[in-house]
Amino acid sequence: MPVKTCGGLPAVQTLTEENIFVMTSERAVSQDIRPLRIAILNLMPTKVATETQLLRLIGNTPLQVETTFLCTATYQSQNTQLSYLKTFYQTFADVQSQQFDGLLVTGAPVETKEFAEVQYWEELTKILAWAETNVYASLFICWGAQAALHTYYGLEKHPLKKKLFGIFPHSVLQPKNKLVRGFDDTFFAPHSRHTTVFTEDVHAIEDLEVLSVSKEAGLYLAASKDGRKVFVTGHSEYDDLTLDNEYRRDLEAGKNPSLPRNYYPDNDSSRAPTVCWRSHANLLFSNWLNYFVYQETPFDIEKLPEKTKARQPCNF
Predict the structure, then answer these.
(1) Helix, strand, or coil here: 156?
(2) pLDDT tens for residues 252-274?
(3) Is 261 annotated as a binding residue?
(4) Residue 84 belongs to domain spanning
(5) Is 236 labelled as part of a ligand binding site?
(6) Lowest-pLDDT range, 74-83, 84-93, 151-160, 245-254?
(7) Least C-beta-crowded within 10 Å: which of 32, 134, 236, 300?
(8) pTM, entire model
């Protein structure tokens, strides 16, 4: 089934060439079905690449999904032209009176800063507060997950001694949870971050369940017990060469980066990496969209039930 998005979005051509079913808004209105409305707050500097990665996964499900890309109003990405953002993106002010079945919040290259030091932090906390009543289910990625865990539950992020960078094996702790349905006992996912949230801190929150961890990478997947908040600390959406691009960017900048772990065959950066996380990524997104959004959200999107309240004081 298709993912519905703007016809001129650059990702559309790439996804069409990959045989991902992308439907234009004009065609979708002729179908007698209500698509899922998913808002995507894209905080990544590489807007087009992230759009493509997320739409590829969203479009590989048996559901029609209408996506709305959001950007911050208080900070404009230096890597994306304003004309592009005005064409394909909206801000919180444009959508705050609307309801959505789902919200995706990406990572962002700001994790070494304190939360309050991030230029758009106040705007982000307003969006997270709005999501409590205007969004049925939310999925947060990497720094987005850290920010949401801090905002909703007061959890802190902690600096790592060394950047966590590479592909790491993970274990499933709650195999009966529908979010990990179909996962192998051990699966792989990319990570690229300088900070972490301690697994024991998440365990201490009554409203949260830890679903997957890694011996090397720590906490990977957690969710609220009502399933309406999902936190992913890694980047399952990454393409085959995303880590390679990050490594070479830092190398050219003179940062002397370490090779991404478990990525290049025989740790030889001249060889193309072998993708070992794609099937897990597709399962994660299809399970979330099917079991946590489509099967649960009301048909009348304006009648969203109230979310389970966080057990810790929120920082709204």
Answers:
(1) coil
(2) 999 999 999 999 999 999 999 99
(3) no
(4) 3-158+168-239+278-303
(5) no
(6) 74-83
(7) 32
(8) 0.87
